[in-house]
């Protein structure tokens, strides 16, 4: 590592001009009225370039120090004396010598190399190069649209993301929006950079305008939808989601957004209602199982579980009834049964569980059916510590024999094991199972009677 | 600002690692504090050595930036890293690549070389070949659960910069007669790299082969400690004592890895792990990739962690060249209803990245790719592997297969399949000054640097190391990447951040 560090440091001498001075890129000549004022002054006289250096050393306030040029006809030096004063509009003839530097930036000494290649007229290509190396460059001198575009193209060709972003920030500030958009439309790389930049800085409005201009309607929709995450107040969020419905999502996404809005709307109603019930203290279920969290912003399935837990018996007409949720959101049978089962099992409401799976066929006989395998039912019941008699009923209904035996043995549903071995006519296993049942129990007797037949 | 008020004598400096960001500076400026920093510097870290044959940039957002945002800035830094590498180890004469990003990096390298002729040096080239691979050429591999020892540690506990934090219970020193009161609560932190002999031996093995190595090691170490009874002369005792530190280190190493292996075994022998792996392997071998999968449905219904679900559905999608619209809609609906509608944003990202998308052409290319490149090997030998497919117990990582075939017999033989994979493939040559052109001796291995643009998994690294040590394999591999990843961290980087930003 030491060796490579040494090598890397020596490499820098070859590749880069400067080593360890401050590397900054300034892209703003903004509040410094005097610099842009002096730019205007010089624009007519020559096309010389200016270098503005952003050296903010003071607390809070910014002071700008620039360095004298050695070659061109005049130098723009720092016009700001003292630490906390506002920029003063001093003459340009100030501080023409190098020594002036030390007055303005006493804590820093810039190596001479910094302004060694200070030339008066950098082409866009050179500017980009300098920026890639982290040197200071004011982009203000690129005034015409054409110059700006050349600068942008050079930055893109240089591949350094930082430089591209810097140029884009400059263009964003100095170009009319329509022109910027139009030009970026045909410059994919720069366009992507700008979009990424706007996303990172959260400039939502400009981002959406840009996407609309590009006719990237789905992205506009999703981008706008994303904003809902920043809205904490439920009512406001509900309003916002309502506004999202008309946006140009893809077909399936539109229905999901619609559902999201409808769900939140329902949740607000349910939450208000239930909070009232809870505080009133009249409702038994809320007294026995006080709510641990609000239902707001929960996913649909969680809401269904809540509804099956607290509002199971309600008629379809109410907003909080499970059947209403099922209908409104077109919840498939499978999901519904699973959720209802989980909720009722938690409440140990075995009759309700029974009713979930009982259907009357055309002859009037009841039959047990499930859109999910009964082994899943058993699993869920067992997780909720259902008593063996209840568990047994459902283990008995498991279709696959091997699974049935496994579950029955695991959960000690002796009757089912015995019956299954009997049906399989497996004497050996049945005899072996005797040792698993209690001596003198009804199960042992059952085994014996089967074996003796 | 607050700090400044409290201690006006304090100097504030800011050091950007690995590189300064204009956005950061812009934001600092907007906050009005940019001027408070006396020094603003950057400490450029491009490629960081993680081990003797492994370099990483640890740039976690590269994949997202390149494939979702079309922002190729990190590739620029990859190219710079490669230029630095060439300055140290010589110009690499041959560059092969597959993928858009690979092409871009190669172009930048060539251009950088042209623009800085001073960097031409007289170092004998260490690398014969550079292979640049886009992550999106092989989207499958990171989604599957890795089955090497190191891969599993990463999957389960997450290895951060060669360190892993483990639950402390198994690492508490066993003291006689003490109750469980003094169990440490801080996770146990271990460093994992090839400096540890035992680790270097077992890290790349399939987990099922680790046990036997550990038990052999245990016997050797026990025997070594037994030697103390045989040391009779002073000289012998002295020799034994001088060996003691090494033996103690070996013993502690063995103890650590035995504990880790136990922890992993608890997970790999669980029913859920087995079921998950079964479904993965079904998909990878091409079974039933076109319908809704029951296990995935069950997992959603039981609300298993979302990332697990996403890995599985993406795996199915990649192994089917995209899902049928009906199947995709079904999964999406179930996910949104169970985990929340806001995940529409993540699903959108996954589609953009090509991981979970509708089948567009109506054709499934995966079986052809799988058969031609022999990605699924039924007769895998986990103990004494003869093929790279041991790292996933049957599936040979596509990316590593491409590297393997490049070395022998060359990519001409798989032109058709290469066209089915995204992005261009290409070859470039860089001129070496005469006198530096090396003629490899007979039997001397070529050295290939494989650069994964977008991330690489430990299993792929293990597979490449396997190729390196193969008898008459002919090539040794050094691996570089933008980031070390596993399926979970990778999918996580593509998920939309759902909490509001801190600022």
UniProtKB/TrEMBL annotation, chain A:
GO terms for biological process: intracellular protein transport; vacuolar transport. One of its GO terms (cellular component) is late endosome. InterPro entries: Spe-39, Vps16_C_sf. It is found in: Cytoplasmic vesicle; Early endosome; Late endosome. The keyword Repeat does not apply. Keywords: Cytoplasmic vesicle, Endosome. This is Spermatogenesis-defective protein 39 homolog. It comes from Opisthocomus hoazin (Hoatzin).
UniProtKB/TrEMBL annotation, chain B:
Signal peptide: none annotated. GO terms for biological process: protein transport; vesicle-mediated transport. It is found in: Cytoplasmic vesicle, Autophagosome; Cytoplasmic vesicle, Clathrin-coated vesicle; Early endosome; Late endosome membrane. Coiled coil: none annotated. GO terms for cellular component: autophagosome; clathrin-coated vesicle; early endosome; late endosome membrane; lysosomal membrane. InterPro entries: Sec-1-like_dom1, Sec-1-like_dom3a, Sec1-like, Sec1-like_dom2, Sec1-like_sf, VPS33_dom3b. It comes from the Eukaryota. Keywords: Cytoplasmic vesicle, Endosome, Lysosome, Membrane, Protein transport, Transport. It is a peripheral membrane protein. PANTHER family: VESICLE PROTEIN SORTING-ASSOCIATED (PTHR11679). Plays a role in vesicle-mediated protein trafficking to lysosomal compartments including the endocytic membrane transport and autophagic pathways. Believed to act as a core component of the putative HOPS and CORVET endosomal tethering complexes which are proposed to be involved in the Rab5-to-Rab7 endosome conversion probably implicating MON1A/B, and via binding SNAREs and SNARE complexes to mediate tethering and docking events during SNARE-mediated membrane fusion. Belongs to the STXBP/unc-18/SEC1 family. This is Vacuolar protein sorting-associated protein 33A.
């Amino acid at each position: 590592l030491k060796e490579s560090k040494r090598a890397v440091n020596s490499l820098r001498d070859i590749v880069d001009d400067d080593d360890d001075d401050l590397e900054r890129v300034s892209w703003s000549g903004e509040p410094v009225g005097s610099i842009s004022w002096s730019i205007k002054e010089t624009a007519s006289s020559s096309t010389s370039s200016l270098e503005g250096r952003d050296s903010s050393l003071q607390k809070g306030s910014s002071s700008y120090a620039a360095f004298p040029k050695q070659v061109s006809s005049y130098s723009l030096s720092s016009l700001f004396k003292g630490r906390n004063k506002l920029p003063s509009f001093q003459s340009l003839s100030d501080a023409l010598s190098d020594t002036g530097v030390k007055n303005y930036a006493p804590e820093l000494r810039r190596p001479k190399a910094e302004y060694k290649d200070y030339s008066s007229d950098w082409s866009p290509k050179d500017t980009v190069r300098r920026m890639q190396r982290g040197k200071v460059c004011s982009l203000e001198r690129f005034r015409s649209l054409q110059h700006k575009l050349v600068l942008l193209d050079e930055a893109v060709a240089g591949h350094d993301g930082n430089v591209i972003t810097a140029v884009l920030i400059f263009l964003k500030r100095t170009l009319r929006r329509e022109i910027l958009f139009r030009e970026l439309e045909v410059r994919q790389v720069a366009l992507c950079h700008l979009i990424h930049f706007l996303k990172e800085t959260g400039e939502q409005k400009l981002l959406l305008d840009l996407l609309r201009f590009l006719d990237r309607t789905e992205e506009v929709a999703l981008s706008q939808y994303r904003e809902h995450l920043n809205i904490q107040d439920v009512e406001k969020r509900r309003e916002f989601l309502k506004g999202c419905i008309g946006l140009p999502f893809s077909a399936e996404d539109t229905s999901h957004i619609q559902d999201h809005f409808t769900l939140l709307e329902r949740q607000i109603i349910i939450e208000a209602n239930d909070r009232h019930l809870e505080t009133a203290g009249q409702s038994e279920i809320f007294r026995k199982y006080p709510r641990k969290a609000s239902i707001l912003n929960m996913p649909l399935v969680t809401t269904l579980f809540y509804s099956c837990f607290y509002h199971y018996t309600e008629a379809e007409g109410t907003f909080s009834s499970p059947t209403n949720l099922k209908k409104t959101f077109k919840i498939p049978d499978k999901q519904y049964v699973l959720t209802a089962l989980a909720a009722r099992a938690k409440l140990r409401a075995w009759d309700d569980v029974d009713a979930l799976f009982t259907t009357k066929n055309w002859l009037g006989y009841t039959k047990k059916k499930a859109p999910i395998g009964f082994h899943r039912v058993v699993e869920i019941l067992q997780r909720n510590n259902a008593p063996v008699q209840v568990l047994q009923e459902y283990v008995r209904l498991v279709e696959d024999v091997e699974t049935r035996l496994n579950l029955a043995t695991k959960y000690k549903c002796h009757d089912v094991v015995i019956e299954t071995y009997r049906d399989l006519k497996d004497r050996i296993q049945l005899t072996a199972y005797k040792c698993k049942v209690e001596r003198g129990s009804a199960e042992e007797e059952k085994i014996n009677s089967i074996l003796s037949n | 600002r607050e700090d400044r008020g409290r201690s006006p004598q304090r100097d504030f400096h800011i050091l950007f690692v690995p590189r300064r960001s204009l956005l950061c500076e812009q934001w600092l400026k907007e906050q009005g504090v940019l001027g408070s920093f006396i020094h603003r510097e950057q400490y450029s870290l491009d490629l960081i050595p993680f081990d003797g044959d492994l370099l990483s940039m640890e740039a976690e957002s590269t994949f997202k930036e390149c494939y979702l945002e079309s922002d190729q800035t990190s590739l620029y830094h990859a190219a710079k890293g490669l230029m630095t590498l060439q300055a140290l180890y010589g110009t690499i004469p041959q560059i092969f690549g597959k993928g858009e990003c690979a092409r871009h990096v190669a172009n930048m390298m060539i251009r950088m070389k042209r623009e800085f002729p001073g960097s031409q040096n007289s170092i004998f080239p260490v690398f014969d070949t550079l292979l640049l691979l886009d992550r999106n050429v092989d989207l499958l591999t990171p989604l599957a659960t890795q089955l090497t020892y190191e891969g599993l540690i990463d999957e389960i506990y997450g290895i951060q910069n060669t360190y892993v934090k483990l639950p402390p219970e198994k690492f508490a020193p066993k003291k006689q007669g003490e109750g469980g009161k003094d169990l440490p609560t801080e996770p146990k932190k271990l460093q994992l790299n090839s400096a540890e002999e035992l680790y270097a031996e077992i890290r790349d093995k399939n987990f099922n082969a680790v046990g036997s190595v550990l038990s052999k090691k245990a016997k050797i170490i026990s025997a070594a400690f037994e030697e103390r009874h045989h040391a009779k002369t002073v000289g012998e005792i002295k020799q034994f004592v001088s060996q003691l530190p090494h033996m103690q280190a070996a013993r502690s190493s063995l103890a650590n890895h035995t504990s880790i292996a136990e922890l992993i075994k608890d997970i790999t022998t669980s029913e859920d792990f087995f079921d998950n792996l079964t479904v993965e392997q079904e998909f990878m071998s091409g079974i039933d990739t076109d319908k809704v999968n029951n296990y995935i449905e069950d997992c959603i219904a039981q609300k298993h962690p979302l990332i697990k679900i996403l890995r599985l559905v993406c795996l199915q999608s990649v192994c089917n060249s995209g899902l049928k619209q009906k199947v995709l809609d079904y999964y999406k609906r179930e996910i949104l209803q169970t985990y929340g509608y806001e995940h529409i944003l993540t699903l959108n990202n996954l589609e953009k990245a090509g991981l979970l998308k509708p089948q567009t052409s109506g054709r499934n290319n995966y079986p052809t790719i799988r058969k031609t490149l022999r990605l699924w090997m039924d007769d895998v030998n986990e103990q004494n592997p003869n093929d790279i497919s041991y790292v996933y117990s049957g599936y040979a990582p596509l990316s590593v297969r491409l590297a393997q075939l490049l070395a022998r017999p060359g990519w001409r033989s798989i032109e058709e399949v290469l066209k089915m994979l995204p992005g261009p493939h290409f070859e470039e040559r860089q001129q070496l000054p005469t006198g530096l052109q090396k003629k490899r001796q007979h039997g001397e291995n070529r050295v290939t640097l494989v650069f994964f643009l977008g991330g690489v998994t430990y299993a792929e690294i293990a597979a490449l190391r396997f190729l390196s040590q193969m008898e008459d394999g002919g090539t040794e591999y050094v691996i570089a990447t933008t980031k070390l990843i596993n399926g979970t961290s990778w999918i996580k980087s593509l998920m939309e951040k759902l909490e509001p930003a801190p600022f």
